[in-house]
Every structure is written in C-alpha cells, then in structure tokens.
C-alpha cells in the first residue's frame, strides 16, 4: 500500500490522483502503527471491568498497546488537515488554469512566461 | 510566570493565532498589533530560556506535570535555546516588516495571513523546543501546513509551486513518521532523552538502520538538501514576500536543527559516523548542494529566485558542517544556522522592499536603486559581503570554522568546494551590486543629463527591520567569538 501511494504521488500526472496517493500512503502508515500495537490474545486496555474481571489487569503483556492508537489519532488529524489544504490548493489551481493535469499546467505556465514565443 | 517560560514560548503564539483571528474579524486593524504582542512575548520568553540555560543549566519542562518518558517534555539546552532566540527574533522582525507589504500584496487576506503566520511560528518554535519525537512530527506538520497555505496565496505560479511543495513535504513528513514508528517498535519510547539511553544496546539492529534512513531522507526533504531541493526555488519565488522572508530563513534552519538533533542526540555520534557512514554521505550531498546552488543562482535574472538558489547552497554549508562531524565543523554549522538566518532575513526583506517600490525583481531593473533607496541598498551590500564571507561580517566566521573543520577532517576537497563557492558568490553579488550602484550607460544619461531620482525609501515598518538585520550581521560578526565561547561550545553534542 505504501508503495502504491508513493507511486501515485510521484508517477501520476493528475493532481487529484496525487492527493489520493498521499492518502493511501498515510493510511498505510496508520495501519502499520496500529498493527504494531496488536497482541495475540490481548484485551482492552481498561483496568476496571476488563475481561477476566481485573485479576490480570496490570500485566502489560495481556493488553493491546493503546499508545500507537493514540498517536494515530493525532496523525489522522494531521492527515485530514493536509488533505484539506491540498484540496484547497487544487481548487485554486483549477480556477487559474482550468485543468488539473500537471503537463497542461506546465504548458500554460510556459506560455505565460514567454508570451512572444 | 517565569518558570513557565518554555511553555510560553510556544503557547503564546498558538493562542494569539486564534485571538488575532477574532480581533481581526472585529476590527481588521487589530490583527497586526496582536501579532506583534504575541511574538514579542514569545521572543522575551525565549531569551529568558536561553538566559536560564546559560546560568543554571538545561531546562526540563514537563507539560501537565507528566513525567517523561510518558509525558511530553520540553527540553531547552544550549543548542535549541540559541535557535529559539533566532527563530523568535526573525519572526518578530518579519512580523514588523509585514504591515505595509501584506496590505499591498494581499489586501483582502490580512487577517487570515496573520493567523497563519502565528501558526507557522508556533510550529517552528515547537519543533525546536520539544523533547519528544512524535510531538516533533506534529509541530513539523503544523509548520508545513501553515507554510503551504501561506505560499499558495502568492503570485501567479504560487498555487502550483505550493502543491509541489505539499507533495514533497508530505512525503518527508511520512518518512519521518515511519522512522518514529520503527524506533517505537524497537524501544517502546518516544522521548529523545529516553531513546538516547535505550538505543546504544540496539545499534546492530536492522530496524534501527531503516528508521535512521527514513529520518535522514525525511528531514533532508524538509530542509531542502541538494538532490531533494526541487520544491524550494519555485515555492519561495512565488510566495508573497512577507512569507518568503519568514520561511526562507527559518524552515531550512529548523530542518537543519532537527537533523543535528537526530544524528547526534537521539542517535550517538558513534552510530551516525562509524556504524552507518551517514555523515560522509551528508558531506558529499552538501558539497553538491553548495556548488549546484551557486551555479544555478548564476543563471537566474530574478533576484528572489537567485536568493532561493543561494539558500539551497547555504543549506549545503550547514549540512557540510554536520557531515564533517568534528568540533570545528559543527561549530561552523551551528554558527551558520545563526548567521544564515540573519543574512537571509536581510536579503529577503530587501527583496520585499524592492518589490514594494518597483514591482520588478529583475536584476537589470535595479538601476538607480542606490539613489532611490540608499539605506536598503547599503544593507544589501553588507548582506552580500556576508554571504560571500568578507571578514567583519558574520558570514566570514562560520565559513572560517567550516574550512577549519574540513582541514581537520583531512577532506581537502570540501575546503576547495567552500572556497570555490565563495568565488561564485562574489560573482553573484557583484552582478547585483554593479547594477544597483553603477550609473546607466552614457547614451542613456546623455538624453536627460543627470537623471534626478527622488529618494523613495521603503516604508518605515519595513526599513527598520532591514536596518536591524544589517546591524545584526555586523554585530554577530564582531561578537562571534563571544557567542562561540559562551553558547555554541556547550551546544556541541557530547562525544566531540
């Protein structure tokens, strides 16, 4: 997934596809973090009313590690805002050039720089 | 209040970012003074931090009284104390200068501009002050996101340049985050000081090497080190001038700081120098950056674009100092972070002033500027001399240490690169200075006799920071011995 996203960001010429690429890449990272937290036979990281009624409540090994989830909560917020900014910029670009294809934009930019040629 | 100063440094601009938005909705004119108040408080707090560090030692500030390694910790030592002061100083200067410039370039967006501006500064200060790897990522993204938005409001090519920057910046940030993930799996800790304790036992692990590689690439992207610099010239050329004078001195420097932190504080010098030859690779990349930046700058006719390429070269200097990995090299690198922020501040502010008065940034269009804007151009000469590295200015001293470092490391080729780039910079700046100061060709002068050009200086709010920056360049040069002996020699990480 990470590589798909990475390819989309670098290889695709359409700006929206690039944005989708960013998202796939970031989702991959989130899955990666969350997967590190999982443990076989782990239970919820809540001390009271846990499975097995708290008798093994304080052994770290029997819990799913909650910290990566919390980190990813923050990362998701960051992702959402990145997506927002990226889309806003894409809208700006579309308004200015009437296209979202990178090649066409570069072509238009070249024209505006050398109006005589 | 006073023991809370590490928190104040970051929290004040963050809260005032929203306050300035509220005040700005109420009365548009208020957002400028609110911004100034916030940055002044932040500047004073960071000076207080540095002072405390110098007198009593390293500050550990535990947010919400959660002790590390569980809670997030702010650490101020000599290295980031110094950089905190630079960041808050430069952003204060840019904020002062921005009044007229923003009113002219972005008339409808003044209020939002200041909100984003403060968020950006919050991000920078947070990156510098935090002692937690994941917190650093969050601040990195705050700074970058505000940066993308600020760049996108610029002139014609800006949204596209900003989009490219966003793609590269996000890749960089994601790589950094992956690095954090690998470290976390291996150690179960995110606190830098804690990691430093745990990591040496794991130095042979492959996971750690992967993490290290991700960090290095991610941070290099953020600081625009040579092969990864492609986003920088476009982004900084098309951004509004107030934005590029904030981003150009700071973003790359903060990136360089993160690199020093990761290479030498989180990982020990032994790991970064001997186990993985990271510093050697960094040195060669930096040498490429210096030459490439200077050569491409020669090809530009737009002053701002030229400065952007010079900035690529300057990043190379800092990375070279880090890559040399000896005492002199690092002294040079840290001193250059300081000097280069001031130099780039001065230069980009001057470009803002030129833009403000004449709407053109082409080098041949600078004729008569010495009569139109005598003070600004005087500072331009000082800053130019400093980038070249002429003794009384500060640029000389950091280059001196870098060359000494190269000689100490027996890497003569790097010393040669440094000297060649100085020569290239001479050409660059004399091309500008020649255009500014020399009279036009005879036939042109013949037509109207002595062409009368009225003095039309930049507005006072813009002129004042330029003059302060110019004075700063000179005084930093004169005082650089003091700065090294009182701050930087303690800032160099243990093991050198």
Proportion of residues in β-strands of chain A:
under 5%
**Can you write the helix and strand succession of chain A as a string?**
HHHH
Look at the helices and sheets of chain B and give the structural class. Answer: mainly alpha
Oligomerization category of the chains in this entry: heterodimer
Number of helices of chain B: 20
Order of helices and strands of chain B: HHEEHHHHHHHHHHHHHHHHHH
Q: What is the strand tally of chain A? A: 0
Largest interface: A-B, 31 and 25 residues
The overall pLDDT of chain A, averaged over residues, is 72
Number of strands of chain B: 2
Apparent shape of chain B: globular
First-to-last CA distance of chain B: 36 Å
Task: Kindly state the percentage of residues in helix of chain A.
Answer: 55-70%
The total count of helices of chain A amounts to 4
Unreliable residue runs of chain A: 53-57
Q: How much is the radius of gyration of chain A in Å?
A: 23 Å
**Low-confidence region ranges of chain B:** 442-451
Structural write-up:
The complex is a heterodimer of chains A (117) and B (496). Chain A has 117 residues and is mainly alpha-helical. Chain A has helices at residues 2-11, 15-37, 67-97, 102-113. In chain A, helix 1 packs antiparallel against helix 2 (15-37) and helix 2 packs antiparallel against helix 3. Chain A is elongated and about 65 Å long. Chain A starts with a helix and ends with a helix. Chain B has 496 residues and is an all-alpha fold. Chain B starts with a helix and ends in a 5-residue tail after the last helix. Classes of the chains: A mainly alpha (117), B mainly alpha (496). Chains A and B meet through helix 2, helix 3 and helix 4 of A and helix 5 and helix 6 of B.
Search tags:
heterodimer, A: 117 residues, mainly alpha, elongated, B: 496 residues, two-stranded antiparallel sheet, 78% helix, 2% strand
């Amino acid at each position: 997934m990470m590589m798909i996203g990475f390819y989309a960001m670098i290889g695709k010429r359409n700006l929206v596809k690039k944005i989708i690429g960013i998202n796939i890449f970031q989702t991959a990272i989130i899955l990666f973090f969350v997967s590190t937290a999982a443990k076989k036979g782990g239970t919820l990281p809540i001390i009271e009313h846990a499975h097995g009624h708290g008798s093994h409540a304080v052994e770290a090994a029997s819990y799913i590690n909650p910290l990566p989830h919390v980190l990813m909560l923050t990362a998701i917020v960051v992702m959402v805002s990145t997506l927002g900014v990226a889309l806003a910029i894409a809208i700006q670009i579309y308004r200015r050039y009437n296209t979202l294809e990178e090649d066409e934009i570069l072509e238009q930019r070249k024209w505006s720089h050398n109006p005589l040629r | 209040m006073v023991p809370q100063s590490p928190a104040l440094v970051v929290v004040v601009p963050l809260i005032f970012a929203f306050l300035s938005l509220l005040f700005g909705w109420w009365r548009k004119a208020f957002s400028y003074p609110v911004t100034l108040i916030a940055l002044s408080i932040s500047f004073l707090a960071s000076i207080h931090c540095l002072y405390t560090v110098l007198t009593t030692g390293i500050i550990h500030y535990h947010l919400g009284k959660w002790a590390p390694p569980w809670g997030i910790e702010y650490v101020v030592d000599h290295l980031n104390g110094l950089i905190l002061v630079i960041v808050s100083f430069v952003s204060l200067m840019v904020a002062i200068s921005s009044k007229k410039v923003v009113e002219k370039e972005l008339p409808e967006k003044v209020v939002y501009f200041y909100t984003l501006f403060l968020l950006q500064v919050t991000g920078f200060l947070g990156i510098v002050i935090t002692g937690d790897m994941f917190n650093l990522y969050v601040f990195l993204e705050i700074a970058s996101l505000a940066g993308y938005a600020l760049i996108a409001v610029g002139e014609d090519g800006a949204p596209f340049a900003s989009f490219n920057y966003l793609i590269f910046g996000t890749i960089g940030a994601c790589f950094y985050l992956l690095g954090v993930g690998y470290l976390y799996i291996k150690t179960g800790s995110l606190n830098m000081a804690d990691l430093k304790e745990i990591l040496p036992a794991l130095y042979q692990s492959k996971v750690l090497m992967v993490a290290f590689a991700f960090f290095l690439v991610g941070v290099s992207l953020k600081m625009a080190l040579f092969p990864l610099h492609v986003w920088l010239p476009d982004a900084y050329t098309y951004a509004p001038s107030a934005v590029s004078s904030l981003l150009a001195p700071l973003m790359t420097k903060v990136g360089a700081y993160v690199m020093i932190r990761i290479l030498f504080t989180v990982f020990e010098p032994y790991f970064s120098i001997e186990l993985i030859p990271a510093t050697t690779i960094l040195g060669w990349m930096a040498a490429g950056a210096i030459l490439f930046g200077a050569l491409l700058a020669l090809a530009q006719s737009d002053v701002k674009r030229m400065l952007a390429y010079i900035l690529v070269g300057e990043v190379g200097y800092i990375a070279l100092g880090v890559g040399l990995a000896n005492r002199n090299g690092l002294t040079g690198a840290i001193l250059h972070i300081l000097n280069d922020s001031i130099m780039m501040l001065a230069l980009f502010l001057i470009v803002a002033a030129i833009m403000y008065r004449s709407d053109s940034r082409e080098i041949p269009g600078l004729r008569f500027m010495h009569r139109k804007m005598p003070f600004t151009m005087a500072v331009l000469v000082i800053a130019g001399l400093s980038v070249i590295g002429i003794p009384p200015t500060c640029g000389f001293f950091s280059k001196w240490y870098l060359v000494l470092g190269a000689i100490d490391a027996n890497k003569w080729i790097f010393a040669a690169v440094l000297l060649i780039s100085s020569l290239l910079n001479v050409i660059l700046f004399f091309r500008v200075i020649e255009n500014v100061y020399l009279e036009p060709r005879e036939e042109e002068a013949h037509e109207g006799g002595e062409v009368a050009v009225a003095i039309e200086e930049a507005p006072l709010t813009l002129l004042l920071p330029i003059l302060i920056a110019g004075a700063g360049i000179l005084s930093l040069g004169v005082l650089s011995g003091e700065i090294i002996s009182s701050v930087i020699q303690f800032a160099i990480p243990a093991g050198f």
